[in-house]
Amino acid sequence: METFLTDICKGRTLLTLILCIWVPVEVMAQARNATVSSKRPSSLNFGALFTFNSAIGRSAKPAILAAIDEVNSDSSVLKGTKLKIIFHDTNCSGFLGTVEALQLIENDVVVAIGPQSSGIAHVISHVVNELHVPLLSFGATDPSLSALQYPYFVRTTQSDYFQMYAIADMVEYFGWREVIAIFVDDDCGRNGISVLGDALAKKRSKIAYKAAFSPGAPLSDINDLLVGVNLLESRVYIVHVNPDSGLSIFSVAKDLGMMTSGYVWIATDWLPTHLDSLVPPDPDTMNLLQGVVAVRHHTPDTDLKKSFASKWNKLKHEGSPGFNSYALYAYDSVWLAARALDVFLNEGGTVSFSNDPKLKDTNTSALHLSSLRIFDGGQHYLQTILKMNFTGVSGQLQFDLDKNLIHPAYDILNIGGTGFRKIGYWSNSTSLSTTEPEILYEKSFNTSGSTPYLYSVIWPGETITTPRGWVFPNNGKPLRIAVPDRVSYKDFVSKDKSPPGVRGYCIDVFEAAINLLPYAVPRTYVLYGGGKRNPQYTDLVSQVALNNFDAAVGDVTITTNRTRVVDFTQPYMESGLVVVVPVKQVKTDPWAFLKPFTYQMWLVTGAFFLLVGAVVWILEHRINHEFRGPPRQQLMTIFWFSFSTMFFSHRENTVSTLGRLVLIIWLFVVLIINSSYTASLTSILTVQQLTSRIEGIDSLKSSNDRIGIQDGSFSRKYLVDELNIAESRIVTLKTMEDYTKALQDGPKRGGVAAIVDELPYIELFMTSTKCKFRTVGQEFTKSGWGFAFQRDSPLAVDLSTAILQLSENGDLQKIHNKWLRSSECPMQLNEIDADRLSLTSFWGLFLICGVACAIALAVFFCRILCQYRRFSPEAVERDVEEIEPAPRSSRRSLRATSFKDLMDFVDKKEEEIKHMLRRKSSDNKQEASPSTDGKSHSPS
Fold first, then answer.
1. Using one digit for the tens of pLDDT, what is the confidence trace for 284-298?
2. Taking CA atoms, which of 387, 586, 665, 903 is between 20 and 30 Å from 851?
3. Concatenated DSSP letters of 224-243
4. Do 816 and 512 meet the contact criterion of CB atoms below 8 Å apart?
């Protein structure tokens, strides 16, 4: 807004000055209120206003003359009306340009084409606003000209607004965070760079320094400017100047050695404008620009453009050997005005001019202001221009609601050798791409998931490696690195008498990472804190954000609030808040041997011992004499055998196959149970002899006991702000000795119930106290330690990569082992119930054993029944003969007798059964032999 108000004031002041000193060369012979043409006029005046002897003017003038000739020879446009072009040269002067503009307007022009200068356009826009004459500018690219303040200003080229966003996208694509803007300090330069700053801010980048020089500055001023720029950190230069004097910057830069490897030069469209005008290119000029990246207005390669290019050399007007994009825009501006005028006349519009009542001649003034007249149809004609839509040599001419040409696009060029090559394109809808924008428009291209891409660039110094974009400034100032002056846990960082003045784990990690960088980093370490207590780390980070230090190196925790003001590297150590409590040994329990198993496990295990003993006795009783004897002896054998397998000390041998199968499976189960029992009992008797009343952060939070924290730690703010713990409960502790005393005293004797601190400190503390304390619960925050740098510092990114490299090659662990002893203490307390073994863990084993027993018994009894059926028919037959006369009521005693016989049969030895079966088989054979003989001797 301030820029616009300044422009208004400057424009009105300059206009007043011009009117005061300008005397019209010609005065209208007659003053009339209006001149009206009732039919199509035979001729109309177009005005053209620009600097003839300039890179843009030399290309624009032949293009405008060619367009006027073609319009006049085209019978389909402005039938019966010829166009006359009136040229006025602004001579690169704002004052003369304004005078020439007033002289041009007095010729009753219906449209003015030009100017190329944004500064002149600002002033003339006030004139055309008053006189209602549309101003079609093919060269004024100042973004502020699009304001509503200038309704009659129509830009027929692209605004620098889009060009600056194209450059911002390139800066983001190559990963640079800071740039230096070199520009001419005029309206176009200032406003364009202002837009660039806004565009970079959206990409989390910025303009580190604005190097402005006055229009027409001598080489000495440019030399001094670049010498100062070269002392700064950034090596990415954005050059936004005019085409006629911009090469002097590169000439001076080459003399200063600033066109070598490590430098990045990005030029706006002024450079391609100059180079396109040189045919063939000048070798000396191209030698200055090796490795420069530039943006150029993108104009599609249509048939119209090719036809224009083929006719360029045939034009008989004096101009430049080659044409640039502004020639195309100037050519299309004439056709735009002619086509719109044709529509205007066809719609019944009339070309008439009337006096402006605000401009009156006075007796005391020699100015003939009445010669400046208002174009009565100007408003209608302006709206017709803005509604036009056709394809010209520069592409599609159609305006959006902001009066900008639709589909703004740029070519991305890389200068090398004797020419340049396209490395990609940019448009406001497709961003960076290697595909022409008009092709992507036809495909309805969606950029939401696309990745910007450009072809490789050959940078200054003939390297294809993307420059880092920054160096340490050549002003002799090393980095000032703040290091916390700790009074506790000095293994992490502490003061040292020998260079570099500090030592510790954090310092070694930082130095190792710095040594991996491909460039030197001058640095000095500055202790932060009084040395009597640990410094406040939040204040330390704030000092870095306030530019009092360049970085902070030490045990600095990465927190959300801190990342809002500084940039952190990749964490080099994991961290998190834990709770440490005092512990005491549990008294010896005489029944501790029962604790490894739950009572369900004990019952099932005992039952299976008895079950397996009984099954083995059944399977071995008939064939193994060790399992025979009186009932009392056999019962003792079952118990003895069952429980002796627990120690694998059973003296009875198994003979049967089924018995051995059951025993093998059972011994495997016993082995697992014994091993588990031993491990669980060992854990209970050795490890789990500790207990604590505090179980974690939740129980600590719900209690009213005092909590200890480390001096300077962020844990105080976390406990108060996040967990809503009363600040009166928090006790600040400075040293490890304070930790030990506070925990041992406890809250009843002025100590604390627990300490909340970060895990790395607690590991070192527990190791130093020989495991007298333990952590309870889990880490209730997850974070890490990193090195803090100022916002957008490129060192943060490079050091993050170096830290990852240290982690991958094992050097980070070696540094850890050098400074920090590995903790042999178990980090957490475990409950006894957690080590007790339940039936859930072993039911599968018991199931297998039970199934094996059932199968063995089934096979055994099937075998017994088969033997009994072979043995029993004779005895059953005798019994039936003896008791056949007996009544039916005695059948129950028969069944009892049969079951008793079966039990007796089962109780017999296997050898006896086999002997009886063999004898029975022999007797049956002998009885069958006499019967056979008797039948053979009987009479027939």
1. 899 999 999 999 999
2. 903
3. HHHHHHHTSSB-EEEEE--T
4. no
